[in-house]
Amino acid sequence: MTLDLLVRNAVLPDGRTGQDIAVRGGRIAEMRPGIEAEATRVIDAAGHLVSPPFVDIHFHMDATLSLGLPRLNQSGTLLEGIALWGELKPLLTHEAIVERALHYCDMAVAQGLLAIRSHVDVCDDRLLAVDALLDVKRRVQPYLDLQLVAFPQDGYYRSPGAVENLKRALDKGVEVVGGIPHFERTMADGAASVRALCELAAERGLRVDMHCDETDDPLSRHIETLAYETQRLGLRGRVAGSHLTSMHSMDNYYVSKLLPLMAEAGVAAIANPLINIVIQGRHDTYPKRRGMTRIPEMRAQGILCALGHDCVMDPWYSLGSGDMLEVAHMAVHVGHMTSREAMGFCFDAVTKNPASIMGLDGYGLAPGCNADFVLLQARDPIDAIRLKATRLAVVRRGRVIAETPARIPALALEGRPATLDVTLAS
What we know:
The protein is α/β, with parallel strands linked by helices. The chain folds into two domains: 3-52 and 364-403, Urease, subunit C, domain 1 (Roll), CATH 2.30.40.10; 54-358, Alpha-Beta Barrel (TIM Barrel). 33% of the residues lie in helices and 20% in strands. The protein has 13 helices and 16 strands. The chain has an eight-stranded parallel beta sheet, sandwiched between helices. A four-stranded mixed beta sheet has the order 3-2-1-4, with no helix packed on it. Helix 5 runs parallel beside helix 6 (222-232) and helix 6 packs parallel to helix 7 (252-265). The chain is globular, with a radius of gyration of 22 Å.
C-alpha cells in the first residue's frame, strides 16, 4: 500500500540517526532505517533533526498582537499590564480578537508550534474573549490543538462576577480551571481562591493551571497551598503552577521544604523565561533579580517542568514571534542551564514535557503516534536551540502544512566556500 509520506535519513531527538519515517492515514506507521515503499510524497531530511511539534503550555491568545491598544506599558510592570488590559477590554470586539488570534496561529504553525494552552480572561461579564477563542479553537482544530484555561485575570474573589463567570466559561467548553491568587486583596483570599478553584476542578474532572506567585515578594507562597489542595483532592498529574517567580526570591531553607511538597503532590511547574525576566525585578536597583523560577532545583526533585511563551506583542510584552526555540534559548541562559544534559532538557521543555502536562493524545515520534512533526535545519536539539533553527517542513497528520527554505548564506570570500552550512558537523 502506498504511503502518504515518507521522510528519509532523519536524526531524532534521542540521537538515533539515519531514520526513515513512514506515514499512512495521519499516523506514523513505521520508523527505522531503510524503509522501502512507494509514497505520495518523499522528503529527504538529509541528516537534519525531526522533532515532535513544539508545544506552548502558557499563552494569552485573547490579548496577543494588541500592542499599543489603547496605549503602551510605560513601566514594563505586571500591574501596569493588567491595568492596560482593563482599559482595552471594553474596546474589544469578537471579530478583532478572532482576527488577531488566527494571525497568531498562522505564525505559530509556521514555527512548528502545533499545540497551545491559552488562558482566557473571564472577568468581562460578556465573556467576549471566551466566545471568540472558542470560535478560534473550532477553526484551527484541523492544524493546531488549542486548549483553553478559564482565567480570572482581575481576581477570582476580587473581581465582581468572576466566580459565576468562570463557571459559565467552563459550561461553554473551556477545559482547564485557572486562577491568580497573588492578585487577590489578601493572602487569605488568595489561599481561599486556590482551595475553591481546585475543588471546582475536582468536581468537574478538569485540569488546573494557576498563575501562582508571579511576584518578587518572597512571602507570596500560594504554590504551597496549591500543592496541598492537589494532594487533598486527588488531583495528582492534573495540576500546574505557572510562573512561580517568587521562588527566585525565597530563602533556601523554605524552598528546601517547598519543593518536596510539590514533588509529593505531583504538581507541574511552568516557567515563562522571556516574560519572567522582563516583568520581574522592576523595583530593584542593583543587583537586579532575574525572577525566573528555580527550574534546575525542581528538576532535581523530579518535578515535571515546562516552558511557555506567555505573551506576544501585548500589554505585557512588546516582542515575540511564536518561536519556542527562542523561549528555550532564553531559559538556557537565564537559568544557567548550559550543560549538554540541561540544554537537552530545555528542548524537552518546549516539546514532550508540555505535551504531557496538556494531556495530548497521540503525541510523539513512535509508530502509532499522530504524524505531527517538524523538520529542523539542525543536527541535534542543542544545535536547534543554538541556531533557533529554520523549520524546513511542518507536518500535521501526515500533511505538510508549512515549509521554509533552508538558511544558506552565500559568501564572497577569497579562498573560502561559496556557501555556509550553519549547522554543526555531525
